[in-house]
Amino acid sequence: MTPPDDAPRFNSAAARDIEYALHPYTNHKAFRESGPLIIQRGEGIRVFDDAGRDYIESVAGLWCASLGFANQRLADAAYRQMQKLPFYHAFGARSHDPLIDLSEMLIGRAPLSSGGKPFSKVFFANSGSEANDSAIKMIWFFNNAIGRPAKKKIIGRVRGYHGITVASGSVTGQPANHAMFDLPIAGFHHVSTPHHYGYAQPGESEEAFATRLAQELEDLILREGPDTVAAFFAEPVMGAGGVIIPPATYYEKVQAVLRKHDVLFVADEVICGFGRTGSYWGCQTFNIQPDILTCAKQLSSAFLPISAVMISDRLYQGIAEGSDKAGTWAHGFTYSGHPVPAAVAIETLKIYDEIDMPKLVAERGAYLQRAMRERFADHPLVGEVRGVGMIGAIQLSPDKASRATFDPARKLGTRWQALGQEHGVMMRVLVNESAAISPPLIISEAEIDTMLERMMVALEALRAEI
């Protein structure tokens, strides 16, 4: 039956959402016509909308719901802490048990920092953006404290993603995060994306490509002046930039350049940390020894907002001296180390230990990588299938041989994502029509099969349309 012309287009909740909510990463003019998808509950790797339809979450929400969308232990941990101490801050040398315990647990599980030494201290924030913004301020404070006031420039990578504050959005290398925001601000620079499939020259090996990118980085440092370049930011595996796996020898060569010019390495483990790449940290997967490590998302399995910045002892000693000169280290958030998210993060790390998360992901990830390639590599619309551990991408191409990309104006990735939703899988299709795959780490092999089947049905529907 066709609804009457004067029938409301949206239910009450959707209408109120359109009326009052300003959604992140949304075309708001189009949104007022399409309306929201309202998710009401979650269970395992699935979420359910207000009509009762289920969707497999192929990207764990936003790369973060590692233990799925329902876990009683994490809910209980939050409730117990709320009953005991629902809030306290860490300003002025105050502390509490969850902050202390989580700091110790993170340092104990951290990879090696620069020079093969343990990390020294942990600072807490509320998001990956805040963690990376804090890292930038730490770097600037450190260099002022040790008498290098000119050494402040920050280098990121094209398509890299490090957040959306003014500073973290500047080191981010995504056009959408710069357009109309007047970013990047002065002092931020970007080098090429380390994607061999997309940017290697004809016949160029991965090692030769890595050598060329390392030289590009050194050329930039020399052009700007080593005494002005402070730090280099990199995700071990680029996430929002399209799930970019670095070419062989890339980080080995990049780190040599950074050490040569005393440029700090900040490893953004916001997506890669806590097992996603098959090791506890992406740094361990790719043999990175950073000066600073940032993490978030899977730290609490996304149950509550929390992020962390781990710093080397060299950084800490400089910050300590600077804080004495200035009278304080005047940085921090009301909710830095908030006891409730910290308690949930502690319980999350305990669960990771109990299920041996890196081993589980290494085994389950091998199945995911194999299944992705078997199902999609030969599809006529697919150019590349790539990944490591429990993160991957399927990139569309109109021509496998030339590695061409589709005209962005056709918005085929957006259409594939919409078709996926119609067929019961939440997808996130990124730059160059690359569908990211980063499901909850607890996903079973049978659930991997179902997820990929739904994605394939959506891809076949897209193929029929074009």
TrEMBL record:
Keyword list, A-Z: Aminotransferase, Pyridoxal phosphate, Transferase
Entry keyword annotation includes Transferase: yes
Coiled-coil residue spans: none
InterPro entries linked to this entry: Aminotrans_3, Aminotrans_3_PPA_site, PyrdxlP-dep_Trfase, PyrdxlP-dep_Trfase_major, PyrdxlP-dep_Trfase_small
CDD domains: OAT_like
Listed GO MF terms: adenosylmethionine-8-amino-7-oxononanoate transaminase activity; pyridoxal phosphate binding
CC cofactor: pyridoxal 5'-phosphate
Keyword Transport appears in the UniProt entry: no
One Gene Ontology term from the biological process aspect of the record: gamma-aminobutyric acid metabolic process
Protein name, UniProt field: Aminotransferase class III-fold pyridoxal phosphate-dependent enzyme
